[in-house]
Automatic annotation (TrEMBL):
Gene3D superfamilies xrefs: SH3 Domains
Segments crossing the lipid bilayer: none
Pfam families in the cross-refs: YjdM
Keyword Hydrolase appears in the UniProt entry: yes
Molecular function GO terms recorded: hydrolase activity
Keywords for this protein: Hydrolase
Span of domain Protein YjdM C-terminal: 3-69
The protein, known as: Phosphonoacetate hydrolase
Keyword Ribonucleoprotein belongs to the record: no
Organism the protein comes from: Pseudarcicella hirudinis
Length: 69
């Protein structure tokens, strides 16, 4: 089970990734802007999702919107 980013690069625990698209966060009025660097990702049991902490908030992001930094 390999977790890959939007370009097909394999992601590992603790990698840094960059957003490739503006994303609205469900349940808030916050938007994560394209190009935002997210550090220290955690892999989940679902290979299409990673856990991360953005602005002190824990969230799950789809790997199709990420590229390895």
């Amino acid at each position: 089970m390999d977790v890959v980013d939007s370009n097909g690069t394999i992601l590992a625990e603790g990698d840094s990734v960059t957003l490739i698209k503006d994303l609205k966060v469900k349940g808030t009025s916050t938007t994560l802007k394209r190009g935002k660097m997210i550090k220290n990702i955690k892999l989940t049991s679902n290979e299409e999702e990673v856990e991360c902490r953005v602005d002190k908030v824990q969230m799950v992001l789809k790997t199709c919107f990420l590229k390895k930094a």
